[in-house]
Amino acid sequence: MSIPSIIVERLSKTFGQHAVLRDIDFEIHPGEMVALIGPSGSGKSTLLRHLIGLTRSDRHGGRVRLQGREVQVGGRLARATRPERCRTGYIFQQFNLVGRLSVLTNVLVGRLGSMPRGRALLGRFSEEERAMARRALARVGIEALADQRANTLSGGQMQRVAIARVLMQDANVILADEPIASLDPRSAQEVMQILARINEEDGRTVVITLHQVEVARRFCRRAIALKDGRLYFDGPIEALTDARLTALYENAGLDELKTRTPSIDLTAPVGALG
Ligand SMILES: Nc1ncnc2c1ncn2[C@@H]1O[C@H](COP(=O)(O)OP(=O)(O)OP(=O)(O)O)[C@@H](O)[C@H]1O
């Protein structure tokens, strides 16, 4: 059996007095596309940041392994975290592009981690790397924008550039933190379709935090749900019934529940759902 892409064991994180992650355990296998859902403040982004070592767990707060290598144990980052970061793509809600640089250069930035240090410092990219960046842009459908400045793009186009940059990393694992939260519905759908295609065609593992449960249902086969920092659900998306969703979001406020799960009839008694 193949090595899991991600192993999380008894992961716990406390900010001050606030326990944000509590004893989280799961494994994600190569080629999975997993939605990480839960009410606002349940710990989704914090969990994702732990996976790549951007946040350290509590002392004795568990372990994270990525593609068979230690990222952190008991609040200490493994020495070899940098190569793991290079082999893991991270997509942010706010895209994190350099606005004054061209689209092509922003995509090439994804290559810096795997280039010799001297060439990386000077930002000297080879013709082969430029051709690779153009292919990545073609794959996300915006090759024609290669020479445009990044800060002239729409949100949906910016997120496509961010995905192309991840493709340049040749990352086997892609972590996306609310990648569609600031996009209009159509751009959001297009970005999800691109991620799903990359997952399907390349077999890359994708973990994606989402606010919209309907989107998770449409694009992901598995969901991991957090509630108050605890693992509330981990299983096939179809097992995440309306009754479970109602319970997941029950203290989150009616507005959040309506937004996240538009399919739920809020007038029906919980026993009648799911
Ligand atoms: N660096 C930090 N210092 C202190 N508290 C933090 C820090 N980062 C996150 N938190 C707190 O941890 C909790 C979980 O935050 P997190 O962003 O992981 O939640 P989330 O589920 O991603 O929320 P949302 O869906 O609103 O983005 C929140 O109460 C947040 O205020």
UniProtKB/TrEMBL annotation:
Keyword Transferase part of the UniProt annotation: no
Keywords per UniProt: ATP-binding, Cell membrane, Membrane, Nucleotide-binding, Translocase, Transport
Localization terms from the record: Cell inner membrane
Membrane topology qualifier: Peripheral membrane protein
Pfam families: ABC_tran (PF00005)
InterPro entries in the cross-refs: AAA+_ATPase (IPR003593), ABC_transporter-like_ATP-bd (IPR003439), ABC_transporter-like_CS (IPR017871), ABC_transpr_PhnC (IPR012693), MetN_ABC_transporter-like (IPR050086), P-loop_NTPase (IPR027417)
Domain of life where this protein originates: Bacteria
GO molecular function, one term: ATP binding
All residue ranges annotated as the ABC transporter domain in the record: 6-253
Keyword Membrane belongs to the record: yes
Main location: membrane
The name this protein goes by in its record: Phosphonate ABC transporter ATP-binding protein
Originating organism: Halomonas pelophila
Gene expressing this chain: phnC
